[in-house]
Write a structure and sequence with these properties.
Elements lengths: L2 E5 L3 E5 L2 H15 L8 E3 L13 E3 L3 H4 L11 H15 L12
Parallel strand pairs: 3-4
Antiparallel strand pairs: 1-2
Length: 104
């Protein structure tokens, strides 16, 4: 579906956010190499998907189930060290969007 619909006090449509998510996942994968990357479209628990939950969509109350918090007691483990190194490399590539700061 190219458009998604929100039904509330008014009905309106917006572009399907999945293609943009796929592009963002690919961009992050290009920066982090073989490190696993996943992406989700996160909706509040008020949302309803009457035709079923689309791929890569999750509700807010499911985030900790699908992505449990990292056990910080594992500090010094190889897996945590690798995650921290990849995260640092990714953050170093980030640049703020110029149009966010035009009114400052």
């Amino acid at each position: 579906m190219s458009d998604w619909t929100v039904i509330g006090r008014r009905r309106f449509t917006f572009d399907n956010p999945q293609p943009a998510l796929y592009d963002r996942i690919a961009a992050v994968k290009a920066l982090v190499g073989e490190f696993p990357v996943e992406g989700r479209l996160l909706f509040s628990n008020l949302g309803k998907f009457t035709k079923g939950m689309p791929k890569y969509v999750m509700m807010l109350d499911g985030i900790e189930v699908e992505f449990p918090p990292v056990d910080r007691s594992l500090k010094g483990s190889a897996a945590l060290a690798q995650s921290e190194e990849v995260w640092s490399r990714l953050v170093a590539q980030l640049k703020p969007s110029p149009h966010l700061f035009t009114n400052l």
